[in-house]
Amino acid sequence: MFSYQKRLQYPIDIKKKDLRLAKYLVTQYGGANGELAAALRYLNQRVTMPDNRGKALLTDIGTEELAHVEMIQTMIYQLMKGATIEELKRAGLDTHYAEHNKALYPTDAEGVPFTVAYFATTGDPLADLSEDMAAEQKARAVYENLIDLTDDPDVIGPLLWLRQREIVHFTRFKELFEYYEKKLKNGNNEWKDMGYSGDEYMDSSNFMEEDEMFFMPNQNNSTNTNSYKNKMQKEADNNMMPALPNNDDILQNLYNPFELGNMIMRRM
Question: The domain spanning residue 143 has which CATH number?
Fold first, then answer.
């Protein structure tokens, strides 16, 4: 059973209307590399993970992706809030309005509706985790593309945070992949000593910690932007991932008032 907390995983407060960006951002709602596809992919694949460790991790990350869906929905809503029909027409959203008014609908940036064909499942943990790692890399790349398309720090902040979560998820999937790879017997997809015992995977010891998953605001305002930027750069280097966008003007203002310095990105 899911327990829902009535808060966003990261605070969102977009003050400037931007219909053009809303049209692009919807791809992370209903596109091939978006959050809805990720949530359904992991929550579906978790059933055939061979042990408690795999079931717990895919449950954790799949559930977190639902929180990311909620974030993307909120961002799109705020970017479109107060738009007139004429503004929607100029932004190329008149066809969306004809079908949906100003309601949200999961599509990619070109208006192609969401489909479950965006993800697969094979029942082979190594194959499925390979897909999961690729999905996180592609989502990271899309977030970087979206960051390039805006100069609004109220938008860039959540996008950077979501980008970093993709790196964390990739790392956790990679750890699980390597763990399972060592457990393979003779390379014939037979598993041994996996410890599967029914629904005991719900034991909380198998799950990610809450402070690993949620934004934790810096209560003392003691962590500055540069230290967080350096922390993110170090994580990127360690994971052989692209660094944060090199835009000092944006970064200097990005984390006020929502500094991310105290966010525990993952349990090491």
Answer: 1.20.1260.10
Residue 158 lies in domain:
19-207
Tell me whether residue 84 is in a domain: yes
Residue 77 has pLDDT above 50, yes or no: yes
Q: What angle do CA 32, 1, 167 make, to 5 degrees?
A: 40
- How far is the C-alpha of 142 from the C-alpha of 129, rounded, in Å? 20
pLDDT digits (tens, 9 = 90+) for 200-209: 544 444 555 5
- For residue 120, is it left (φ>0), alpha (ψ between -120 and 50) or beta? beta
Contacts of 69 (CB under 8 A, 6+ apart): 29, 35, 36, 39
159 assigned to some structural domain = yes
With beta carbons less than 8 A apart as the criterion, state whether 244 and 233 touch: yes
pLDDT tens across 185-228, in order? 655 556 554 544 445 544 444 555 555 555 544 433 333 334 44
Task: Please give the distance of CA 48 from its chain centroid, rounded to a whole number.
Answer: 22
Q: How far apart are CA 7 and CA 182, in angstroms?
A: 39
What DSSP character marks residue 149? Answer: T
As given in the structure block, the two tokens for residue 97 are 């309005």
CA distance 235 to 178: 19
Structure tokens at 226: 């540069």
**Strand, helix or coil at 171?**
helix
Determine, yes or no, domain membership for 103: yes
* Element at 264 (helix H, strand E): none
For residue 260, is it within any domain? no
**What letter does residue 113 receive in the DSSP assignment?**
B
231 Rama sector, left if φ>0, alpha if ψ -120 to 50, beta otherwise: alpha
Domain count, the chain: 1
